[in-house]
Amino acid sequence: MSRRRNAIVYNAGFLATLPPVNRDSILPACIRLLRQRHESVLNALGERGRKLEDNLHSLRLAEAFLDKGELNRRHPDHLLQIAVIGPTQAGKSSLVNLLLGEERARVSPLAGYTIHPQGFPLNAENSQWSWLDEYFRDYRRYRPQELPEQRYDGFALDETVFSRHPLLPPAVIWDTPDFDSVSAANYHHAVLRTVALADVILLAVSKDKYADQSVWETMSLLEPLAQPTVICLNKLTPSSRAILLRSLPQKWQVARSDAPAPIAALPWVEEADGKLPRQEGQSLLEMLAQASLRVDRGRHERQALRLMTLHWSDWLEPIHRELAARTAWNEMVKEALEEALAIYRRDFLDHPHHYETFQKALAELLTLLEIPGLAVGMAAARKVLTWPVRQIARWGRNLRSRTDTLDQESVVLNRTQEHLFIRLGQALLEKGEEDPELSGWWRELGLGLREERKNGEARRTDALAGHVRAFRPEIGRTAEQMHDKLREHPAVLNGLRATRATTDAAALAIALHTGGIGVQDFIIAPAILSVTSLLAESALGHYLHKAEAELKQRQFQAVEKLFDQSLRPILQGLPDLLKPDDKFNIPPQMLEQAEAELENSR
């Protein structure tokens, strides 16, 4: 006994010298969030999410084991913890009672009778149990006889101190639920939390259950924790003893890479009367005592890192898949917007019959070419003369649809945006077929896109109208720049003014400004043809083309800005509007920081 007490004191002192890595670590928060999101996704997906169950088990174990590390730091001298684990009907509760020497753990011939972890202090003098409440923070503590039958969020602690078996050190013996029954899913997380708390594992298996897959899957999961382990082969018959004692180490070596645990074989006894068989019981106690001497809480940090490193890629695989889908969606939006801009350039800016913006700039130039002193009177007269034509045009415009009354740029942009939504919708359908594991994600995103196409029409219309209004000053600026350039060439300027004064271009320009004549009528007017010809044939011909190209470029940039402000953020933000229940939604920055910390800790 004195040897064990000295070991506990030594390890506690060693723990006190360790740097408090987990206090500032992002890993516990990341593991907790991963566990929470896996639980939520599994609940939402039901049978479709069964592949995530293994991840959830290892995440629960990792989260609990990190909490055990914090417990080691805050309470380095807390009692040794021994967890008795195993499948149904392995005799776990009976084995706990044999170790205690009293019938304290409730037993039943029914499988799955124990559904809560239950702790029993052995050879203990410590009566302070607040640290247990800290560790089982999501569970309520009960007395064993008060445990609820229909709730799984509890654990029991029998505060009676049992004094038995001087070979064993002061400890808490934990009776645990099975991990293989039909109802095990309801309390498996409590089993894992109790296992993570344990310094020593006592695996109880019977001759009927020792080969069950669930047993060795659990032992494989626990391997990174390197907890000293003893196997109790329970309920043996003489005929099966030798065969099972040979088979068990082989099962261990298939499931794990470390040395097989020592095996204590207990025979089938109808009435044990709360007593261990003399020879076999002595052997079991000695094995547990030796296992307790191998406990080294100072290795906990390395074991936690080993567990996280082993499962990290599996934990993050569905998250990376979801992030990759979002990246793919952003790339789809980017390509669709680039295609939309290319259509806008082709069908408007570079179209010989649709591009009207530069003609509007020439109309502004015609106004600037009025001969000083005559402009006001001529404009008034021409306005009166063109009144009948403008009235007829206005009546015609009232009879046309709203789309027909839009300028050509607005018509093209409306068609372009519709094409963009159709293209993205088709791409989402194809993605859903190519990526069956995330087909629900793509399908839901497609529904969100359809809803945005319908409900966002008014917002897009307002943004388009705002773009048209905001660009009007650029048209006037181009006209003023051309006029300023003409002042540098008086001969050309005077020739243009003469042409301007002898034609009806002013009336058409005014009609254009007041909404009477369409642009297509305006650009074939003799005045504009005369002005354009004179400019093209003069020394300023190259400047005319330069001014038009610069105006196109500014207009293209304005439409780029329109798309970036009114379309790109809405489209790229659609994944944020999806139902969160079956999405992981883990911040990439947290994953990057956690991965960097894990890599630096290796």
Q: What's this, in brief?
A:
With 602 residues, the chain is α/β, with parallel strands linked by helices. It folds into two domains: 78-295, P-loop containing nucleotide triphosphate hydrolases (Rossmann fold), CATH 3.40.50; 351-566, no CATH class. It has helices at 2-17, 27-45, 53-74, 92-100, 130-135, 184-197, 213-222, 238-255, 278-293, 300-349, 357-368, 375-385, 387-399, 402-405, 408-434, 439-455, 457-487, 490-501, 505-514, 519-522, 526-537, 541-566, 568-572, 588-601, and strands at 80-85, 118-122, 140-142, 154-157, 171-175, 200-206, 229-236, 263-267.
Structure description:
- This protein is an alpha/beta fold.
- It folds into two domains: 78-295, 3-Layer(aba) Sandwich (Rossmann fold); 351-566, no CATH class.
- The protein is built from 24 helices and eight strands.
- The chain has an eight-stranded mixed beta sheet with strand order 3-4-2-5-1-6-7-8, with helices on both faces.
- The longest helix has 50 residues, at 300-349.
- The relative contact order is 0.10.
- Mean pLDDT is 82; it is low at 1-22, 373-390, 399-404 and 515-524.
